[in-house]
Amino acid sequence: MTSTESSSQPADRYVVVGNPVAHSRSPFIHAAFAQQTGEAIEYGRLEAPLDAFADTVRAFLAEGGHGFNVTVPFKLQAYDLADRLTPRAEAAGAVNTMWIEDGLIHGDNTDGIGLVRDIQDNLDTLLEDKRVLLLGAGGAAMGAMLPLIECRPSRIVVANRTASRASDMLEEFVEAADSFGVELWGGGLDALEQLSEDEACDVVINASSSSLHGELPPVPAFLLGDGVLAYDMMYGAEPTVFLRHAAQCGARTADGLGMLVEQAAEAFYIWRGVRPRTAPVLADLRAALQAEHKG
Ligand code: NDP
């Protein structure tokens, strides 16, 4: 019996809301979690018109929807819509997971914790006392900052194409970094040239959308050498241009598919109180992605 065939009760309804949303892998992931845990849920896609995110999700909730994920381009609007925000959603300034509790719309951001779990649990790289380089200062980078800081790395360097955006983002996290004993530093991508070889980072995370455009951020080769984990939040059947370059420089590489599965697992846990196992779902999703690519 699958989760949606539960004999006694109708399945609880969840969706991912975006525009476009047809490409979303979330239904695959949540169906696998439901099957694995026996939770009676059904999870679909809901495309909201670009100018009607709030109306669309309110209608979904009014029709009995239990919760939803939010993807591009609505994560900021979801933040505005929430009656209650978790601290990590507040810090991220964006929301990707919503649900109703005590009659109020709650919003969380599970992207950053998804990233951290993928790096620490799936890729066996503990971040405590490590140096982390974060490329980018957009929504994904904002969402990653607090969960990264909470891992107590010794230093986080942020480098972004637009230097002022990196500085603004760093400013937001000074207090949190101080309380966890994390040194923050950064600026434009050219700031990376100021780093000496003994300031190389252990983990380099591409949280920019450069790979989406097939472009390579100008990261000095010594920052991607032996012993470094190079992580690109973007994922696909083939390694991104950033990951290909990092591998040539000697780094170990990983794409963001694990982050996607881990952020979904956290959302599933929030909604259902059950933590699914992610490794088999990640393996199945990877296989599906590659099969589609070959086919
Ligand atoms: P945003 O549009 O919010 O931010 C884009 C960022 O990328 C900005 O910092 C921008 O710099 C920078 N950028 C864009 N083009 C280039 C380029 N050619 N060279 C260098 N930097 C560039 O996007 P998001 O933060 O939402 O997403 C970033 C990436 O993370 C995407 O690839 C997305 O797919 C991925 N992602 C993956 C997730 C997962 O679960 N695996 C979850 C969320 C995001 P500037 O400020 O100068 O414009």
Task: Tell me about this structure.
This is Shikimate dehydrogenase (NADP(+)). With 295 residues, this protein is of the alpha/beta class. The chain folds into two domains: 3-109 and 259-294, Leucine Dehydrogenase, chain A, domain 1 (Rossmann fold); 126-255, Rossmann fold, CATH 3.40.50.720. It is 39% helix and 20% strand. It contains eleven helices and twelve strands. The protein has helices at residues 26-37, 53-62, 75-81, 87-92, 111-122, 139-150, 163-172, 174-179, 241-249, 257-272, 279-294; strands at residues 12-18, 41-47, 67-70, 84-85, 97-101, 104-108, 131-135, 155-160, 183-188, 203-206, 229-232, 252-255. A hairpin with a 2-residue loop joins strand 5 and strand 6. Helix 5 (111-122) packs across helix 6 (139-150) and helix 5 crosses helix 10 (257-272). Mean pLDDT is 96; it is low at 1-6. It binds NADPH dihydro-nicotinamide-adenine-dinucleotide phosphate. Residues 111, 136-141, 160-162, 165, 207-213, 215, 217, 233-235, 256, 259-260, 263 line the site of NADPH dihydro-nicotinamide-adenine-dinucleotide phosphate.
The structural class is alpha/beta
Order of helix and strand elements from N to C terminus: EHEHEHEHEEHEHEHHEEEHEHH
Radius of gyration: 19 Å
> Regarding quaternary structure, how should these chains be classified?
single chain
Report the helical percentage: 25-40%
CATH topology description of the largest domain: Rossmann fold
